[in-house]
Amino acid sequence: MVHAVPVIRVVAVCVVLRDDEILVFEGRDAVEGRTFYRPLGGGVEFGERSAETIVREIREELGIDVRVGRDLGTLENVFTWQSEPRHEVLRVHEADFIDRGMYARDRFDLTEHGEKLQALWLPLADARNGLETLFPDGLLDLLAGSASTA
Predict the structure, then answer these.
(1) For the chain, N or C: smaller number of CB within 10 Å?
(2) Beta pairing, strands 84-97 & 9-15
(3) pTM for this structure?
(4) Cα 112 vs. chain centroid, distance in angstroms?
């Protein structure tokens, strides 16, 4: 039996805020039977800066242009998804929709790797209070730290 070589994936995600809500995609781990949320973004391609990844990914996923803002920091996420161990290093940036009308939309349809997903606005209070699972771990602390320095 051949085992896949473990890979540490470099990912760039963006924090798009609407009042006290964050734009996230809704995912589901069928093995664990739980729903989770994560900011939009994706894998950084060789030679690409994380801000460029965000612009590309949001355009690919939603067909929307964003303006990438402040670099909020880096998070490391070691987790299990669908019973498979995963390891990501995430670059986190602020971002805003260039078309301000996009903030009025409550949901966005997207397709990722052939899977139909929803992007939606998650109240940060729900994540802070443990009502919803927001990944990556440490994101809420990163956001709290960025608010105090803004």
Answers:
(1) N
(2) parallel
(3) 0.89
(4) 13
DSSP 102: G
Q: Which residue has the tokens 């349809």?
A: 109
The string of pLDDT tens digits covering residues 109-132 is 987 777 788 999 999 999 999 988
SS3 category, 65: coil
pLDDT tens profile 75-101: 998 887 777 888 999 999 999 999 999
